[in-house]
Structures are given as structure tokens and as C-alpha cells.
Amino acid sequence: MKNAPSPDEHLEMYRKMLLVRHLEEGLGALHKEGRTRGPIHRCDGQEAVGVAATAVLAQGDKVATTHRGHAVYVGKGMQMRPIIAEIFGRATGACGGRAGHMLVAEADLGVIGGNAIVGAGIPAAAGMALSMQVRGEKGVAMCVFGDGAAQTGICHEAMNMAALWKLPVVFVLEHNQFGLTVPTEVQSPVADLSIRAAGYGIPAVIVDGNDAVAVYRAVAEAADRARRGEGPSMVECKTYRLEGFSTSDMGGYQKPEDIAAWKERDPLTVARRALASAFDEARLAEVEAAARDEVARAFAEALADPLPEFAVDAACNPYSEAV
Amino acid sequence: MALMRYAEALNAALREEMQADPSVFLFGEDIGRYGGVFKVTKGLMEEFGEGRVRDTPISEQAMTAMAVTAAMTGTRPVLEIMYADFIPLTLDALVNQASIYNYIWNGQVKMPFVLRTQGGGGAGAGAQHSKALDSMLAHIPGIKVVAPSTPADAKGMLKAAIRDDQPVVFLEHKLLYNTRAEVPEGDVIVPLGKAATLRPGTDVSIFATSRMVVEAGKAAGLLAADGISAEVIDLRSLRPLDLAAIKASVARTNHAVVVNEGWSFCGYVAELSATIMDHCFDDLDAPVARVALPDMPIPYSEPLENAMLPNAEKIAATARKVLG
To answer: How many CB atoms lie within 10 A of CB A246?
Structure first.
């Protein structure tokens, strides 16, 4: 089937989703022990979106994501140790500990990058696509953004320009039902936000965001369209944020029956059930054990890594004699 | 040398840099087919095509944010924001995006983009089309802010800004576009962060940028008639600031007047004043004096607007007061 992942590609997505889940659970445990710093935004339950959307990209393709970007970082090929080291402010972090978990970037892998101003990733991806178009490079830029970001003014401006100029960009709307604590029906008069794409002449589809294969197929088609020079597409992935907004969230506003219903359709469960037709139990168990070990090892190494030393950045200095 | 208008000098800089480097491209409102509201980009779409000279919708927020990531990924965008009064619409892209990534991402990316805009009063354009928001921009670490006053500097500094790997906000002035002066021919670069002495003097230093340099020059003429020798320093670059030039001038004159077309409170003149106090205190014979806009919106009617703006007479009067 065109644009469907091979069984091995599907298994690799499952492995990366496991890495992300272990990362999130490890961070949750360390937060409870008081060992994390600042708010951490977990993506438990949303792993299929970030992992499957980036699975269709080549290394030279670029992705901009949100403050909840761990699945995108792992999906686009970053290693666990520099991600975890960055989250713990270590010198060995992907950005030397300067960025923190919301703003991670690894430019060589096209992760450019996390963004904690809601909505800012949308023009960020459009700008990278503009750069590709100006340089004649046949790449794709992707934005993974949430239903909260879809309400910003800059979303309208960026999508209008991306469509107007037929920029090679894929808009992946990760609809997790909440903007911080406020449910989507309190933020938007329409439930399916991708109907707005029609206003820009952008084709859009809605997929089950907890089904990695469904996300992969829709995003692959959108990326192909971008590479053909036909402009942007939107894929709205319906999913659910199983944990709170961040580790500082006091909770109490997500309905227990909703959480239970979405847990039934956990993206890891969906993927494992589908993979059982192609791989035997022993192979799946082997992948699961390896993912668990890999994350545990990365946590141990990153937490033992050194902290950075402060230095004044000369390029920020106000006087020319210091530049 | 060639006699050129300020707008023509900017146009020449853009043309030469676009000819030399295919990664340089322009976008902004009305800059393509029409050639720009102030005609700075005249003829460039015809020469370089619609791919490299793009008319945009009225979307300052997104286009500035797009310039940031386009700059990080292999191009050198030059963005035109038609009026400095629209800068507040671009601020997330400047304050939260462009200024942070080179440092926060530990040197993984460069940020070679130029935001050209023009500000300032005196044209009857009203409260939303006349401001100089220099201090708002120069406040941000990681962004360079420059404001040439002559056609030669306009050309040489725009070429330097386009080649710079940091974001540069390039402040032009609506009343300078038609000023005409000699511009050196060829690929002459005027480095950013270097002040120029417009007129040497021994009694008082007047520091200014953009159109206020012209007024400071006239003020020096008025003062000379009274036997006062004023030194006029065109700072040219607001950030980075040429501290060495400031220190050398104050050491000569022992008196300083700072001029800017923005507001006084928390304004660029406040920063200049504090900088001179910090670095030149022992050389000063009197407190630094500021000439800036009163802290009010800019009114429309001609006598009201004229009463607001700093000019040669106000600068000269302030210099006399500083000299006691």
C-alpha cells in the first residue's frame, strides 16, 4: 500500500514510542523525588503523533515543535542521552544545558526546534520551507503544533503565506483536547480545527492520532505533496494528553472517564496489537526490554554528567570594543 | 564617488548584495511590483524575480518569525517593516526567537537576517506612523541595531548588515530618504559598531543617530556663532555601541549632550547617559544632558508635532545649559 510503513518501520516507530514513554515516566518519577528543575511537559498518550509524523522525514528535512516535543526529538533521530542531559541542564546536553526541555534543538538532525511560545512553531516551519524554496532545495519543513496554537493570530498569518507561496511545509495538528487546563470546546467554536485549512486552500485530513500507522500514511502523503511543489497540507491528529499540562499541574479538570477511555486506546497498545501480526511475542519483548534498558542507561549517564560553567556571550555584549 | 539619495544608496546596497550572494532575498509589504512605499526596493523584483523579491500580505508577526528560521537554515533574508511603529507586531520574533537561539542552542545556528524599517516624525504621519522605538530594540541582547544618517553610511552599513551573521535591525528615517550626498563607488563596507565624527570640537560632545545627527550638526553651527566649539559624534550603531569613541570625545570636551528621537523616560538617551556616567565620570565637568521626545504620543497638527520633536535649537540650548 502506498505510503504505508513496512513492518520493520512500524516496529521502529513502536521502539521510539517506548523510548518516549520511558522518558516521560522517568521524568515523572524524578519530579516526585524533587530532582527535576522547572516545569516539564510530558506527552504520555501522544507519542504516536510526534514519532510517526517525523518517521516520514529525511535527515535534511526540518521540524519545529512545541514545548511538549519529546516525541518529535526522539522521532527525528536524537539520542536519549543528550535529550535527558539537556533536561537536567548538563554540559553534555544537546544545547549544553542552555535550552532546557522546552527548547531543545539539534540542527544537524533538522530538529529546529522546541518552542515555548505557543503558535511560534507554525511560522518557524514556514520560514524553513521558505528557505528551501528560495534555495531550490527539495526538502520538507514540518510543524507539529497543538489545538491551543491553532487559536493564535500568527497561525492564520503563517498558513496564509505558506499556502500563497506553495511552501513545502506539512502542518501536523496534534489535537490533545486541552490548551493548558482549558478544554478545546471552551477555546474553539469548531471541534475539527482542520476545517479552517479550507480557508487557505490547504487540503486537510483527520486521523486517529493514537494510531501510528494512520498518522504515518497521512503525513507521508502530505510530505510527498510538499516535495512535488504543490504546497502545504494539514493532518489533524486526534489524541489526548494523559498527564497534566506540566509537572506543576495540580490537575482535577480532566474527566476520569475520558482518561480511562483514552488509556484503552493508548498508542503503545494500538501499535503492539497491530505488530503482533508481523512479529512474534519474543521479538516484541526483546524490543521492549532493549528500549527500557536504553532509557535507564541514558538517565544514569546523563545524571552523572557535569554541569556547565557560566560565561558571558560576547555576541550579546552592548559595546563594540567587546565584540 | 557618486551623488546619491539615501534611498538610492540603500537600493544600490541591496542590488549589489543580491548580485553577489544568491542566498540574499527580500520580502515585505509593497516592496516588489511597487518598489516599496519609500522606493528603496525599486527595480529589484524586475532584476531578481518574484522568488527573491516577495510582496507579502499584511502579516508582520509571521513574516518576521519566518525571516528568523529562514536565516537559520541557509538564507540571508532582508525583511522590510514599513514603519517602525509596526515593530511591536514583530516583537515575539525578535525578543523570544531571533535574539535567543544563537546562545540558547549553543552556537548550532547562525542568524543572518536584516530587518529594515524607518521611523521618526516630522512628516505629519500621526501617532501610529511617526515614532522612533530605538530603545525598545536596542534593549534586546543578541540583536544589533544601527541607524545611519548619510547616504554613504546607508549603503556601506546595509552591506555590512546583510553580511553579518547576527540579526540586525536597520533603522532608516522617512525624512532622510531624499537627502543627497556623495557615496563611494564599489564594494565599500562601513563596519557596524563604529561611530563617526561629523564635526570635531573641544567644548561639548553631542552624540546622536539618524536624522538627529543632521540637527546636531545644525546645532553645532548655532553654537559656533556664540564661540562654542561643539563636537558632533554620529554613533551610527546603537548596539553595539562604540564606547571607545564616546570615551575619547568626552575626554576632549568634558561635557556631553545625548540626542534621540524616541521618548526620554527609559529611552535610548537614558542608556547613553548612564553609559557616559559609568565610563567617563571623572572626565565630566557637568551632568550629561538629554534631548529627546517629551513623554507623550506624537500629535498630528504641524505646530503640535513640531513642538514635540528635538531640533537644532533645543540641542544648542541644552549644550549652553550644560556649559553653564
So the answer is: 17
Neighbours of B192 (CB within 10 A): 25
CA A227 to chain centre: 21
Written as nine digits, the cell of A95 is 544545547
- Judging contacts by C-beta atoms under 8 Å, the chain B residues touching residue A319 are 240-243
Smallest Cα distance from B6 to chain A, Å = 25
User: What pLDDT is stored for residue B38 in this prediction?
Assistant: 96
Amino acid letter, residue B48? F
Distance of CA B107 to the CA centre of its chain: 27
Using the Cβ of B260 and the Cβ atoms of chain A, whether some distance falls under 8 Å is answered with: no
Residue A319 bridge partners (DSSP): B241
Element (H, E) at B243: helix B243-253
* Cell digits of residue A52: 510517526
User: What residue in A sits closest to B54 (Cα-Cα)?
Assistant: A165
Q: Are B279 and B303 a contacting pair, CB within 8 Å?
A: no
For A227-285, how does the pLDDT look when each residue is reduced to its tens digit (9 = 90+)?
A: 999 999 999 999 999 998 998 888 899 999 999 999 999 999 999 999 999 999 999 99
DSSP 8-state symbol, B241: B
Question: Can you list the alpha helix ranges (DSSP code H) found in A228-275?
Answer: 256-264, 267-275
**What contacts B291, CB < 8 A, 6 or more positions away?**
B257, B258, B259, B260, B269, B310, B314, B315, B318
